[in-house]
Inverse folding.
């Protein structure tokens, strides 16, 4: 429960998983293809992960491997990991992968995540340190949320280093007020 | 889909820049609460149905049980989203007093709900009374300055301000040589900027 209030964790749990119901459930409107508000045994429904996970623990559903971790993505990542648009696949690719791997019993998700992260991390770090602020936005669109955080951390550490070397005003406008004027950095 | 609205609420928090406050979305918040009461009603009716059939609610695993379970899980999920929304906003609000001081600018005030404003006032009140008991201003800059005075330029028309025993007219674009502690508040609120030689 350490992450109860964690925004990223909550959004990760909202990822959609396809499940097959092993038990019937009545009085719920979660199956759009069904006309009554009942879910029959064997019906295939797409559920958010938080619901699918709990139901699977009680053997009510069986989970399929989400499309973001299927063979196609695997091949894409093997071909050139740095250029794959992981954000549109799944904005929390790594976190979600870690959550789902033990549940669907796919042993190859772990190595896939590791190899994808290793090769993309290098890319992220070099770009964060070298690219100008304006040119960076193009690269950002294919990064997952976790990678974006790393990217921003790298950039802010670069900015802090520059400030330490050059000196600058000690006081600044509180960042919460937004930036109306361009800062003269 | 269940829980979609609650997640939207949380996503709204995440979509803003880090440490920035988004306007309080009371409309969506109320909608999620309404969804919760709906879940509660359906959960109760399913349980009642099981009781009427003479089944043991604790141990039966029929379709009604799983239906009720889904409603229960959705309730818990909605609660988590709502709690996270309030908690993360409260965290930002607590940080406000350290960053912008006890008086909130208009642009922030309109993003807060009524209870959040109350919370901010009470929190800053508690901090103020603590500081007055210590006889120490804790909100000033932590790094000891090299020079107690700094040069600033006024960016907005502040008007005549009384500091120590003299009054100063802070007209727009004028430059002043001020005590650091006096200038600090104006700078963090964006009314002045520090000039470095």
């Amino acid at each position: 429960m350490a992450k109860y209030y964690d925004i990223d964790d909550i959004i990760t749990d909202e990822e959609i998983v396809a499940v097959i119901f092993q038990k019937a459930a009545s009085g719920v409107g979660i199956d759009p293809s069904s006309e009554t508000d009942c879910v029959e045994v064997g019906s295939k429904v797409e559920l958010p992960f938080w619901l699918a996970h709990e139901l699977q623990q009680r053997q009510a559903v069986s989970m399929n491997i989400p499309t973001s971790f299927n063979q196609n993505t695997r091949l894409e990542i093997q071909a050139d990991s740095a250029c794959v648009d992981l954000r549109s696949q799944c904005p929390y690719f790594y976190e979600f992968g870690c959550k789902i791997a033990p549940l669907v019993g796919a042993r190859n998700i772990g190595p896939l995540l590791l190899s994808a992260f290793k090769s993309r991390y290098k890319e992220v770090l070099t770009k964060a340190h070298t690219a100008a602020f304006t040119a960076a936005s193009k690269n950002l669109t294919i990064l997952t949320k976790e990678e974006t955080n790393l990217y921003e951390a790298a950039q802010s550490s670069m900015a802090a280093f520059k400030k330490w070397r050059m000196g600058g005003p000690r006081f600044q406008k509180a960042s919460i007020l937004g930036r109306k004027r361009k800062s003269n950095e | 889909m269940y829980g979609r609205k609650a997640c939207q609420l949380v996503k709204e928090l995440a979509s803003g820049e880090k440490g920035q406050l988004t306007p309080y979305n009371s409309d969506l918040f109320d909608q999620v609460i309404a969804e919760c009461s709906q879940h509660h009603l359906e959960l109760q009716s399913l349980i009642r149905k099981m009781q009427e059939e003479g089944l043991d609610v604790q141990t039966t695993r029929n379709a009604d049980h799983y239906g009720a379970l889904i409603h229960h899980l959705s309730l818990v999920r909605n609660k988590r989203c709502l709690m996270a929304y309030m908690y993360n906003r409260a965290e930002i609000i607590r940080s406000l007093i350290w960053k912008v001081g006890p008086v909130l600018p208009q642009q922030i005030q309109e993003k807060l709900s009524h209870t959040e404003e109350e919370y901010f006032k009470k929190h800053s009140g508690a901090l103020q009374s603590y500081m007055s008991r210590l006889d120490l201003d804790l909100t000033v800059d932590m790094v000891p300055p090299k020079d107690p005075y700094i040069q600033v330029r006024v960016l907005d028309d502040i008007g005549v301000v009384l500091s120590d025993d003299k009054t100063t007219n802070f007209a727009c674009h004028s430059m002043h040589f001020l005590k650091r502690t006096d200038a600090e508040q104006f700078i963090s609120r964006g009314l002045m900027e520090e000039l470095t030689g």
Observations:
- The domain at 1-64 of chain A is CATH 3.40.5.50 (Ribosomal Protein L9; domain 1).
- Residues 7 and 39 of chain A are 31 Å apart (CA to CA).
- The radius of gyration of chain A is 21 Å.
